[in-house]
Amino acid sequence: MNKALLEKCDGYAIITLNRPEDMNALSRELRSDLAEAFHCCEADEDIRVVILTGKGKAFCAGLDLKELSTQSTDASQEIGNEVMQAMTAFKGPIIAAVNGHAVTGGFELALACDVIIASERARFADTHARVGILPGWGLSQKLPRMIGLSRAKEISFTGTPVFAQQALDWGLVNHVVPDEELLAKAKNMAQSMCNCVPHILPQYKALIDEGYSMPYSKALLWEEKQSIVSAKQVFSDTIAQRREAVMAQGRKEKKL
Fold it and tell me: Taking the model in full, what pTM does it have?
């Protein structure tokens, strides 16, 4: 996995796109390595959270158009599917640490994550329309849901980049930090997530994601049903022990 570096930490992993000389453009090799990295994380029960970032000045410039131009139409139709399938197969939270340009397919990679942390030099752009293709990894559906229909259309129809602070103001990213603090911020967030009960993270993620696609009234019933199922699997003394652990952690953080 030379093009997608995998570093396993305590409860979480960091996957780094490693084609800095090409702005981490998604070549066939990088896509394969990236999918393999996510599959490795899914297969490892100790990995509960993944941080996705890029090496160098870019997060990801999207598909490698030079390589794409040499492929047949049939071969290009399935491009990238293995990456999205692998990211979906990982059931825990994925944090995007966007260190620079996130363009088109790179933008979609960030949107495929559950939380987006951006460095001050990050920028997001959708150039599908300028290139003459349509998105296939969820951008046209996810972006309007995050920032509103009109703003999403402006971004996609003009190809104009959105800079970090504007992305924060629009609700596209969760946090903006100085570049040198980006990975530390992502690691701290991953560690906080890892403090949760391990099996709850993927269940909670599924609860939010599946409920979000439902009408509100149906989603409330869905949550109630899942809550009842979950409660039946937990004993009262276990809850008491976990509550004490949460309170102890809170007291510890208050002292810092």
Answer: 0.89
